[in-house]
């Protein structure tokens, strides 16, 4: 049975059950019937972060590879560079345990997860693009993000998608690369749980197949159709420095490759923004 209800976790999460007031935020009008599946989905009510819940379950050896936590609300969600992730009810907040990849893939996990999510959402009619290294865009607006965390031998992907709401333009950082957006009615009222179940089933197959049948070099070329701003002039940097150049692809070790002043530069950190 894929559905499990999380117990109370002191200082992290409330106990959650079909009777909890937030249950309908995840499940819609009715609880799905039990089904056979290898992946288990832990449904979680108000919590600090679904990543915290997943980490706690993993410490208890109750969170296996491919299991996930799907939360109704977060009060301390986090994104890239530990920035706060706005966690409004009705959006998707998930933590997914992944198998540790072979060493050559270790720095490619974020873009690999982004790729499978782009393909899974495109399969639902949503042509989502990946903004290196971990943002999801639709029509140029950020509708989701990915955060990879390693806790010992546990590899977790935190995934957020704006479904019901998104931050207004006035609430975004001044140095934002793009405005926020949401999927809203594009999913025709699909419950959060159903969307996540589809993405998990689809993503597990594509993720596993890529690791077993491909190489990081081959994948760096395969991913190009979903890369936002590929071929455009972009700027990659942080508060200390930045590099401007033509975005030419992803390197086999997960970096972004720019053509700048006649030379190729590969960067492994920084924020990507289109150059006006």
Features:
276 residues; alpha+beta; eight-stranded mixed beta sheet; five-stranded antiparallel beta sheet; 5 helices; globular
Walk me through this protein's architecture.
The mean pLDDT is 89. The chain is an alpha+beta fold and 276 residues long. The radius of gyration is 18 Å and the shape is globular. It has helices at residues 23-27, 50-59, 109-122, 192-213, 216-222; strands at 3-5, 41-44, 68-71, 92-98, 129-131, 135-138, 141-151, 154-161, 233-237, 242-250, 256-260, 263-267, 271-274. It has an 8-stranded mixed β-sheet, sandwiched between helices. The protein starts with a strand and ends with a strand.
Give the helices and strands, then pairings:
Blueprint: E1 3-5, H1 23-27, E2 41-44, H2 50-59, E3 68-71, E4 92-98, H3 109-122, E5 129-131, E6 135-138, E7 141-151, E8 154-161, H4 192-213, H5 216-222, E9 233-237, E10 242-250, E11 256-260, E12 263-267, E13 271-274
Parallel strand pairs: 1-2, 2-3
Antiparallel strand pairs: 3-4, 4-8, 5-6, 6-7, 7-8, 9-10, 9-13, 10-11, 11-12
Helix content: 10-25%
Q: Please provide the ordered H/E string of secondary-structure elements.
A: EHEHEEHEEEEHHEEEEE
Name the overall outline.
globular
Number of helical elements: 5
Integer-rounded radius of gyration: 18 Å
Tell me the β content.
Answer: 25-35%
Strands side by side in the biggest sheet: 1-2-3-4-8-7-6-5
Strands, count:
13
Point out poorly predicted stretches: none
Tell me the major beta sheet. 8 strands, mixed
- Gap from first CA to last CA: 50 Å
Structural class: alpha+beta
Residue-averaged pLDDT: 89
